[in-house]
Design a protein that fits this description.
The complex is a heterodimer. Chain A is an alpha/beta fold. Chain A has a single domain, classed as P-loop containing nucleotide triphosphate hydrolases (Rossmann fold, 3-Layer(aba) Sandwich). Chain A is built from 9 helices and 10 strands. Chain A is globular and about 55 Å long. Chain B has 3 domains: 44-86, no CATH class; 108-166; 171-380, Orthogonal Bundle (MetI-like fold). By secondary structure, chain B is mostly helical. The radius of gyration of chain B is 27 Å and the shape is globular. Chain B starts with 17 loop residues before the first helix and ends with a helix. In chain B, strand 1 (65-68) and strand 2 (71-74) form a beta hairpin. Chain B has a two-stranded antiparallel ribbon. Chain B has helices at 18-26, 31-57, 92-104, 113-131, 138-158, 174-200, 205-219, 223-237, 246-271, 275-283, 288-318, 330-338, 347-380, and strands at residues 65-68, 71-74. Classes of the chains: A alpha/beta, B mainly alpha. Chain A binds chain B through residues 57, 59, 78, 82-83, 85-86, 88-90, 92, 94, 96-100, 109-110, 113-114, 142-145, 158-159, 162, and chain B through 274, 276-277, 279-288, 290, 294-295, 298-299, 302, 379-382.
């Protein structure tokens, strides 16, 4: 397995166990992510994939194991957690934009209040990122005035504003209408090409096939199988993955 | 395939427009509604004319000669007194003569310019807040006023600091005292309430327990009891000789009381904020303080505006309870002035006046809250 201690590992997860009450949600997870790697995590619902990436920025507490992110070990220490969170950005299924702030204020909030940038700097950078996700002209509107796809692109731009080393995507297209999925995936593909480290929980197998360096399949709180995209789809080893692939690919292709 | 010719537009049937439609949909939409409408009209008919008659038509307005803004306005040769004022209708000269008591209590007459300036400042403040809404530095202006206004008001009314002669708090009364108790109560209790609400939601057990106990204890006790405690029981625990101003004690009691209510109102708002907002704020690395100040509270307070104002209106009315610990607010002044042997039996006029003053103030508050809601809403909805 992936236990060799590579110096360029940006995320190292070892022996991770998490329970919700009595429910064993993550079972003995070991996983390393190299800088610049694109990882796609998939699996049936309730398999613990979201929980896993939410442990990486400590939105979920875990009971056993170690996670080292960008050289910082995750503990209960609030300062360390904030340090990690300023290096790791997250994009949520339901976007979670701040509805009381305009789009541009959504983007400048973290740079101003967490990274101590001036208002002008932050605004300039925010507009640049909005340009990149192609919604520069919506800067002064409020989140509720935008479509789901536009909101998700704003959310991605918001996470980019703090120049994160790692981006976590938690089912970024699951809450979108079908015609809006591609506009968000296009942005993600652009990001992937630029070499930012990404962990994506998603069911978009087209994206996984095209962009991922590695695909991880989870079921019942465990990593069942991981492989490069070609072998992942061509030669699935476990029965569970074969079943999963047959279920989603019949509709997909 | 048939092609229809373009039809010309025409007006809706006469029964569907204008006054007739309005009457039908609002007053006579069914026969029960029609009956209720007629019953209401009858009630208004038996209540309104006598009231108008009592207040205006048959009322006595013989104020004598009144100087308004430098003009002498003559209402009658001499001012009416209790005997020739009539008993069937309102005797407004009584209110006119006791106007000072109703507005200032026993505040020394030679210092009366000070509460007047205070009233003026308050009005000015409201006007300025409205005027600077679009001004670039409005936050700075408003912040300055929020800090300066209470200090200036305190120095004006209480005096001291070598600037103005001291006026003891037991001389304050009437509308002046009502406004002071209500505004201090609301302004001081609000931040405490927000902190308690956050405390009750906190992950830290001790803070959560303390906040919950405080809120539930205060809310389970009537305000009168808390006022009595503050006024009569608290001094028993303090060293004899510590003289702790009676008004101050009442203010502390009211602020703590109101804080518990505000806490519950704000908690309601906090609970309406989706979990995703907390997660998004956490995920970008905001500290607990910044998360609440920038993301959570602005949204929670906005949702809570109607309840915050509602709770403030309740408090404003509850301030009248201070009369039982001997503070002479506007309502207490009615009792006081109607015991004047020259004006016996004129409580009704006093109560009607207090009712009108309270109604004007509280109705404005409620209108203002409506406006705030609409303003915040248009900002971010489709």
């Amino acid at each position: 397995m992936e236990t060799e201690n590579n110096a360029s590992n940006i995320i190292e997860i070892s022996e991770l166990n998490k329970w919700y009450g009595d429910f064993h949600a993550l079972k003995n997870i070991n996983m390393n992510v190299k800088e610049g790697e694109i990882i796609v995590v998939c699996g049936p619902s309730g398999s613990g994939k979201s929980t896993l990436i939410r442990c990486v920025n400590f939105l979920e507490k875990f009971q056993e194991g170690n996670i080292v992110v960008a050289g910082i070990e995750l503990t209960d220490d609030a300062q360390k957690i904030r340090k990690i969170r300023s290096e790791v950005a997250m994009v949520f299924q339901h976007f979670n934009l701040f509805p009381h702030l305009s789009i541009v204020d959504n983007l400048t909030l973290a740079p101003i209040w967490v990274h101590n940038e001036t208002k002008e700097e932050a605004r300039e950078k925010a507009l640049k990122f909005l340009e990149r996700v192609d919604i520069r002209e919506q800067a002064e509107k409020y989140p509720n005035q935008l479509s789901g796809g536009q909101q998700q692109r704003v959310a991605i731009a918001r996470s980019l504003c703090t120049s994160p080393k790692i981006m976590l995507f938690d089912e970024p297209t699951s809450a979108l209408d079908p015609e809006m999925i591609s506009e968000v995936l296009d942005v993600m593909v652009e990001l992937a090409k630029e070499g930012i480290t990404m962990i994506c929980v998603t069911h978009e197998m087209g994206f996984a096939r095209k962009m991922a360096n590695r695909i991880i399949f989870m079921d019942e709180g465990q990593i069942v199988e991981e492989n490069d995209p070609i072998n992942f789809f061509k030669n699935p080893e476990s029965d569970r993955l074969q079943l999963f692939l047959s279920q989603i690919l019949t509709h997909d292709e | 395939m048939a092609v229809n010719e373009l039809q010309s537009t025409r007006k809706p049937p006469i029964s569907q427009i204008g006054a007739i439609l309005w009457l039908r949909t609002n007053l006579f939409s069914s026969w029960t509604n029609g009956l209720l409408t007629l019953a209401s009209l009858y009630l208004l008919y038996i209540a309104i004319p006598p009231l108008l008659d009592w207040m205006f038509l048959s009322a006595n307005f013989n104020f004598g000669t009144v100087n308004i803004l430098g003009f002498d306005i003559k209402f009658s040769e001499v001012m009416a007194n209790n005997d020739n004022c009539g008993r069937e209708a309102a005797c407004w000269p009584f209110i006119y003569e006791k106007f000072y008591m109703f507005t200032y209590g026993f505040y020394p007459r030679e210092e009366v310019w000070r509460p007047d300036v205070f009233y003026g400042l308050t009005a000015l403040l409201i006007v300025i807040v409205r005027l600077v809404r679009n001004y670039k530095y409005k936050n700075r202006v408003i912040l300055t006023m929020i800090v300066a206004y209470p200090i200036v008001s305190y120095v004006l009314i209480a005096g001291g600091f070598g600037l103005l002669p001291v006026v003891q708090t037991h001389l304050w009364g009437g509308l002046l005292l009502t406004l002071i108790i209500a505004s201090v109560g609301i302004v001081v209790s609000f931040p405490i309430g927000v902190v308690l609400a956050l405390g009750r939601q906190s992950d830290l057990r001790v803070i959560k327990l303390f906040s919950t106990i405080f809120i539930e204890f205060i809310r389970a006790v009537p305000l009168i009891t808390i006022l009595f405690m503050a006024s009569f029981v608290l001094p028993l625990f303090l060293e004899s000789g510590t003289n702790f101003d009676k008004l101050l004690r009442a203010l502390i009691a009211i602020a703590l009381f109101q804080a518990a209510y505000f806490a519950e109102v704000v908690r309601g708002g906090l609970q309406a904020i989706p979990k995703g907002q907390y997660e998004a704020a956490d995920a970008i690395g905001l500290s607990y303080f910044k998360k609440n100040a920038l993301i959570i509270l602005p949204q929670a307070l906005k949702i809570s505006i109607p309840n915050i104002v509602g709770s403030s209106i309740s408090l404003f009315k509850d301030t009248t309870l201070v009369l039982i610990i001997g503070l002479l607010d506007m309502l207490a002044m009615v009792n006081m002035t109607s015991q004047d042997i020259h004006w016996l039996g004129r409580e009704t006029e006093g109560y009607v006046t207090v009712t009108i003053v309270f109604w004007v103030i509280l109705y404005s508050m409620s209108r203002y809250s409506r406006k705030l809601e609409i303003r915040f809403n248009t900002e971010n909805e489709n």
